[in-house]
Amino acid sequence: MTCEFEKSLTAYALGELDAETIPSVSSHLEKCQSCAKSLQALQNSLSQFNSIPVVKPSNLRRKKALMAVGNSGGKVRVMRIIAAVAAVAVVLTVGFVYMNRTKTVEERTLSVVETDGIVSISKAGDEMRVKTYRGGYARFEISGKEGRCSVEVAPDSYVAIGKYGLAVDAGKAFVSSAGLQYTALGPGGESADFNRQSNAELEVALLNIRRQGSGNMSVAEAAAAIGKLTGKRCNVSPLMTDDRVAISSIGSVDEIVRALDRDGFVLLKVGDDYEVQAVLSDKNTKPALLVKVVAGEVPFRSPAGSVVLRTGSAGSIADRVRTCPLPQGYDASWRSTSERQLLASRTVPFSPINVVVERGMNQIEIKSGRMVLQANGKSYVITLDGATAALPANGSTTIPLKVEVQEK
Amino acid sequence: MVDSLAKRLRNKDPEAYEEFLESIEQPMINFIYRYVGNLNTAEDLFQETFVRFLRSIDRFEPTASLKTYIFTIARNLCLDHLKARKNRVDDPALEDDEGQVIKMTELLMTYDNPSKTVEEKELQERVLSKLQKIPEINRDALILRLYNGFSYEEIAEITEVPVGTCKFRVHSAIESLRELMGEKRNLEKGAL
Lengths: 408, 192
What we know:
The structure holds two protein chains of two kinds. In chain A, 25% of the residues lie in helices and 32% in strands. Chain A is built from seven helices and 25 strands. By secondary structure, chain B is mainly alpha-helical. Chain B contains eleven helices and no strands. Chain B has helices at residues 2-10, 14-36, 39-55, 66-87, 92-99, 104-108, 118-131, 136-147, 152-159, 163-181, 183-191. In chain B, helix 1 (2-10) crosses helix 2 (14-36) and helix 8 (136-147) packs across helix 10 (163-181). The longest helix of chain B is centred in the first third of the chain and has 23 residues, at 14-36.
């Protein structure tokens, strides 16, 4: 191939030739078999180059990047402080920076403590990855200079432990650590920071991340997790029934342990009709197991009974009562209590109106409902209008409810 | 709009982070993946790129585009990584390819076009592997042009060389890759 057009073929194939040159090359290609063949081969090559699979966007990848930013922000701040200190004591600063520099996953070791299935552990760059297959479960330990961290991976789960944290792609992971701190991240980007509970010399991390979950855990799972962590029995209360809900007030890990010692169990379970999420956290103030109602339909019971939905902790209590006009002989009241984190309580002695409590968006929503009530030999249609109210940062809120009672 | 996004990024607006990440994630991860030839490493470098980008966003000149700015960071990180890899005898990234129990394809299942045949898969691996044999300075230009669709002006900005040099590098890379793939040899054989 010694054709003068040869050097233009790549630009031609890439569509880079200017408009004036294209006709002459095209015309030449019609006449020159050698160049046409070369172009064909070149185009085949370019097509082959494009055969490398395209990596799709991944929500997990983005969230990991965002988490990395969050953590590195902290590091940046630390570095700034170090820089300030450096002006005073350069030697100390260098030492500190060196220590920080060495805190990488690479210097941590990962070993399997227990497994009952097919488990793969791999290392890739700064990340260690654990994947369980075919119903296998794994418990492994990560050790480093700062301490160790035990992680349990549920069957058919995948956990990546990077220098920025721990990400769960499927299933759930249960983390218990002393010393090593991880930020846990779910596939939806949910995260929870777990820090040390100094009073118990126990750093506790409770994590249940479902695919669509919020990063918190259900109360039942919290119970099981606390039981494992503390080595104490932590059962669902056998006293629970469909129409009663009792969630204990839990303060710190110590308090959990004391409750377990004292009672043998911690009440953490609600009826099956409700979904309750709990998270152990020591952010801001004192450690507390925050139990909050996030969603659930509360089936009102017959006039003879009542349904009480109560969540509570050490937080203050604020009540607002709304009385609804009802037929004589029935003392129906609506108690709505809202404390930003911890308390919601209502007692309604009739059924079957459904109430939905939404806490995820910091608001409470009462869904509209209609019921027919038999009383004093007459039938009444009671209609409850829906209402929504934002929960204030502090204190309580009143939700005005409109209830109509009509004789049928 | 770009300016306002840059402003929001400077102001550490989490929504801006997400917005920007969403817009650059796919081109960026694919660029890095092709550049370093390993998806695990690409994932790490992707994170690191984003972190460094935000750390240095204050130095971003409004005259440039955010996209070329972050690609410049990504390219530099890739170059650092490749340099470090060359200097390492024990290279975890290389180990991954052979000794790793789980392949990234199994872990992430994020490929758009999973290969349907063994031949296709072999071809993909071959192209990716040969791509790694092209000199880095030509390789990045080729990927940015061929896979990411950057203009030569943008590539010049990212790689900090004149436009003409970029063109030369892309064309050289194509020739090198064809040679490595045996395409040119086949062609010559066919011609004989």
